[in-house]
Amino acid sequence: MKICVDSGFLIALYDETDEHHEKAESFFIPHFTELGNELLVPWPVLYETVSTRMTRHRRQMDSLNRDWKYLHSRKQLILLDDKDFRAVALEECMKEVARPAQRYRTLSLADRVIRGMLSDISIRIDYFITYNQKDFVDICRKYRRVMA
């Protein structure tokens, strides 16, 4: 299977103090080390995950490096290029300010790029893992993406 992840999943996986750490770890180990699924990571997720905060924690970076080398060696790591989605996502962000306050959506540029990827039926995504389901449930439902 091809499993796409949001930054919340990766942050939780490598930050032992994160409230979702155990859940992320219990998903990652069987799905990627035992079952051999492919991990799809949109570039904006990398920018959010490998942040200044994370790089200050050497142990987190060591764990990320170890896992990614392993996945890469087994051809299970796919980095999704965001270039085809950036301009539209930025335009959506700017148009959002014209909406009435009650309909205004506080979606980050990264989330809008990911939503664009989820809406692209040419990208095979079997599952999308996020801890921020409200920002993606509509697009996953519309394009029949399984969200966990």
Keywords:
148 residues, 8 helices, 5-stranded parallel β-sheet, alpha/beta, 5 strands, Rossmann fold
Provide a short characterization of the protein structure.
By secondary structure, the protein is of the alpha/beta class. It has 8 helices and 5 strands; from the N terminus they run βααβαααβααβαβ. It has one domain (2-147): Rossmann fold (3-Layer(aba) Sandwich).
Model description:
With 148 residues, the protein is of the alpha/beta class. The protein has a single domain (2-147), classed as 3-Layer(aba) Sandwich (Rossmann fold), CATH 3.40.50. It has eight helices and five strands, in the order βααβαααβααβαβ. The protein has helices spanning 7-14, 21-34, 43-49, 52-55, 58-73, 86-96, 109-119, 137-142, and strands spanning 2-5, 38-42, 77-80, 127-129, 146-147. The relative contact order is 0.18. The model has no long low-confidence stretch (mean pLDDT 94).
List the helices and strands and how they pair.
Layout: E1 2-5, H1 7-14, H2 21-34, E2 38-42, H3 43-49, H4 52-55, H5 58-73, E3 77-80, H6 86-96, H7 109-119, E4 127-129, H8 137-142, E5 146-147
Parallel strand pairs: 1-2, 1-4, 2-3, 4-5
